[in-house]
Amino acid sequence: MSTELQQKTSLSIAVTDPLFLAQTLTLIHSPSPLALAQWRSQIPHINWQTLVQLAVNHRVLPLLFIVLSDHATGLIPADLMNQLRDLYNHNALKTIALTGELFRILEALDAHQIAAIAFKGPALSMLAYGSLSARSSGDLDILVQPQDFLKPKIVLQSQGYIAKLLPILSEKQEQEFFWWLGEYLMVNEENHIHLDVHGRCIAGDGFAFYTDLSRFWQRLEPVSIVGRSIQTLKKEDLLLYLCISGIKDGWPQLKGVCDLSALIQRNRDLDWDMILRESSDLKLDRMLRIGLLLTHKILKTPLSNRLLQFARADVQAMWLSDRIIKRLTTQQDDLSNPSGFDKFLIRFLGLGHWKPQLQHCFFFVNRSWRLLIMVNKFDYRFFPLPRSLYFLYYILRPIRLIIKHRTKLVNVISR
């Protein structure tokens, strides 16, 4: 941010908190004159430097620019609007480039009879916002059938993509690790685009073992992106996915809440009978309740009385959503990494049923043990060894961890 802009924002008489950012994001969808007037009355007191940084942290900078452009013309410092416009245009160009790359990847896989769909990124942008530029662009994600899970790793090499692995892993170890994780990362060495290949909708951290979402493949639907139609998840399934993903990640940012709210508000023809039925069959009731409560309480998403009654029928969902809201609307930094306890609590309570909760506890212990003994890139950098001596890492890893955390260990022992 420029020195001149920093000098101007330092004159603000109040520091902007995340709650005002949330209030700003409610104006994306047809705000009432009263809500707009109340919001505008706070503009003279805003610390713009803080607000922009919060929007970056929550990954909603494009939405902030859209709101300010639509509802605050002439009320915002010109140099700030120019800077936001440049960032918005840069994000839009990056998203367009990612979309073109997505088409190229899908074509390459289709040529090898590998069924693949886009279910986040550009597809989600179009279904939720009707625009590619409204969401912050990052990497690309594709979903393939379980039996095709490892095929893109080979096929996409011709497109410049290389799976990021430890060179010491054998092919068998590599496959076991990927199957356990449920996804793997590929990177194009030329354009530096990152591609996550998913073998199941919810990958990593054991969540895929609690819920079978394979039925989603049976009801895909097309989405039009810059005049081209590609397959993606049915809107109702995508809504459930966003709720599950939010619980899995601990609802770390307002971006996830905005995506869910936008999907609901843009698609007024959603089949809620189907959504409620599927959430019950798949034991996702609490995850859905929490998602609905977050969108309604934070972004004022209009919900029918039926949905509000459904969402409020679970006391633990109400309590957990309030806890998440407090963090999202008060915490200033470290948003992408909720505390270990908060993340475990959200996942544990979010599962909503005793059996998956018990499974999650066992998985948590098992995962912690795996992470303790699992060799990673830091071990390899600490002491590179040939593949034939891989077994020695089980001895070297504890030594590296002791060296890394020696200060903490000394403090604990000294107590």
Architecture overview:
With about 425 residues, the chain is an alpha+beta fold. Helix content is about 55%, strand content about 10%. The protein is built from 20 helices and seven strands. A five-stranded mixed sheet has the order 1-2-5-4-3. It has a two-stranded antiparallel sheet with strand order 6-7. Helix 13 crosses helix 14. The radius of gyration is 23 Å and the shape is globular. The N terminus is likely disordered.
Outline the fold blueprint.
Elements: H1 3-9, H2 18-25, H3 33-41, H4 48-57, H5 61-71, H6 78-111, E1 116-118, H7 121-129, E2 140-144, H8 151-155, E3 161-163, H9 171-181, E4 183-188, E5 194-198, E6 221-225, E7 228-232, H10 235-249, H11 254-266, H12 272-281, H13 285-299, H14 305-312, H15 315-328, H16 340-351, H17 354-373, H18 377-382, H19 393-404, H20 406-414
Parallel strand pairs: 2-5
Antiparallel strand pairs: 1-2, 3-4, 4-5, 6-7
Helix pairs in contact: 5-6, 7-11, 10-11, 10-12, 10-13, 11-13, 13-14, 13-15, 16-17
